[in-house]
TrEMBL record:
<protein>
    <recommendedName>
        <fullName>Kinesin light chain</fullName>
    </recommendedName>
</protein>
<feature type="coiled-coil region">
    <location>
        <begin position="213"/>
        <end position="268"/>
    </location>
</feature>
<keyword id="KW-0802">TPR repeat</keyword>
<keyword id="KW-0175">Coiled coil</keyword>
<dbReference type="Pfam" id="PF13424">
    <property type="entry name" value="TPR_12"/>
</dbReference>
<dbReference type="InterPro" id="IPR011990">
    <property type="entry name" value="TPR-like_helical_dom_sf"/>
</dbReference>
<keyword id="KW-0677">Repeat</keyword>
């Protein structure tokens, strides 16, 4: 399982109070999310280049232990997988050496596993072991060290630092990656890494993000093809930043439109769903209801095509449409959108619960290892994201019902919302 797919991070920022929320940090580690009525959000989407991935080879799969490790990892039995991988690491270190490429391959599997489990400190420790073993490694060329090993290792460390909230360390790692990119004239790596820095600054509401986005636009014009997918990511994230600050709505709208054009041209539907959703939220936030509605309808159509009709991403867009119709006083339509959204989130949570029960049942038949539920970063992030949006839609729906005098229904929804998030009444 490649880490870049696990950390295609969707971070949300509160527009009303200009307070940032990194979903993984604040809502998983701190479990602290305050609700205010009519909160509006935008989503930043980081860019992952393939060059930041470690390419797992099959060289070390000649060992039966690695095959066993993969089996238990896929089943979610991370305790067993880790035990087997530790044994494999000891074996290859003692037989072929600590710096051999096969040994490094096994070490990368350990880093990857620790990130899946959610043990960031252990993942960081193993990643630093890789870096220390790369020094003075005569088995590898400088180019191999940079492209195959060092860049992916630094990317792992960047993930650990960001999720631990260590912004200063994040920027040091980004600078190190950029030095390698400059040395190798790798402009895609350089620009994508700077974009992720701009997103981190945006989440902190740091005004220097504006300057960096402008530099990225100029740099991409000079060094990238006009239709490079990085361009739409730069423009859409800059639009999110301007949207969140609310100080240049005209430029934000232009950037949203251009990024949509590029995403459609590149047939990048995953990015397009995110851009359309943010643009629709922007139009809603700007009280441009008539323009927002067709954009959100398009976002739903694309989201259903990419993720399926009952995916939580569809539910999130339906939530925006519910708020839009509520503010337009189309209360019957608003209620329909809220109820559909609630159904999608409930089905997702029930499906997630069933899968977890099935996984536990599968592992109960294993007499050699005791099943311990792993904290899959991606699953945990998406599940918490659903809890946040689910709680918000329940709360907003409840307030609408209160206004209509349906107090008993409203109180029931508010109680359900409080179980999902730590809400404070206004």
């Amino acid at each position: 399982m490649m880490i870049s797919s696990l950390v295609s991070r969707f971070n949300k920022i509160n527009l009303k109070n200009k307070t940032t929320t990194n979903l993984f940090l604040n809502n998983i580690f701190n479990n602290n999310n305050n609700n205010n009525n009519n909160n509006r959000f935008v989503s930043y989407k980081s860019f992952q280049t393939l060059k930041t991935d470690y390419k797992f080879s099959e060289d070390d799969e000649v060992f039966q232990e690695i095959k066993d490790f993969k089996k238990y990892e896929e089943r979610g039995n991370y305790s067993a997988a880790k035990s087997i991988l530790n044994r494999s690491l000891s074996m290859v270190e003692s037989t072929i050496g600590a710096k051999h490429p096969i040994t490094l391959n096994v070490l990368f599997r350990m880093v990857n596993l620790e990130l899946i489990i959610g043990d960031l400190s252990s993942a960081e420790r193993y990643a630093n072991q890789v870096i220390s073993r790369l020094k003075n490694n005569t088995n590898l060329t400088t180019n191999d060290i940079d492209s195959q090993y060092l860049i992916p290792t630094l990317n792992y460390l960047l993930i650990c630092s960001q999720y631990q909230g260590d912004t200063e360390k994040c920027f040091k790692i980004i600078d190190e990656i950029n030095e390698i990119a400059k040395k190798n004239n790798d402009w895609e790596l350089l620009i994508s890494t700077l974009l992720n820095k701009a997103i981190i600054l945006s989440l902190d509401c740091n005004e220097s993000a504006d300057k960096l986005y402008k530099e990225l636009i100029e740099l991409s014009k000079q060094k990238l093809n006009e239709n490079d997918k990085l361009n739409e990511s730069i423009l859409s994230n800059y639009a999110c930043y301007l949207h969140s600050n609310g100080n240049n709505d005209e430029l934000a709208e232009q950037l949203y439109k251009k990024s949509i054009e590029l995403a459609e041209l590149n047939k990048n539907d995953i990015e397009l769903v995110n851009i359309l959703s943010n643009y629709g939220e922007f139009l809603f936030d700007s009280d441009q209801f008539d323009k927002a509605e067709p954009i959100l309808d398009k976002a739903i159509s694309k989201s259903e095509l990419v993720y399926g009709r009952n995916n939580p991403k569809v539910g999130t867009i339906l939530y925006i449409l519910g708020k839009l119709n509520r503010d337009k006083r189309n209360l019957a339509f608003a209620e329909g959108f809220f109820n559909k959204c609630i159904t999608i989130f409930e089905d997702y949570k029930n499906q997630t619960k069933r899968k977890e029960q099935e996984r536990q049942l599968l592992n109960q038949n294993d007499t050699n290892y005791h099943y311990q539920p792993g904290k899959r970063e991606r699953e945990l992030r998406i599940n918490k994201e659903v809890d946040i949006d689910f709680g918000n839609v329940l709360w907003d729906y409840a307030q609408m019902l209160r206004d209509k005098g349906r107090l008993k229904e409203a109180e029931n929804l508010e109680q359900r919302a409080r179980k999902l998030n730590s809400f404070e009444d206004d």
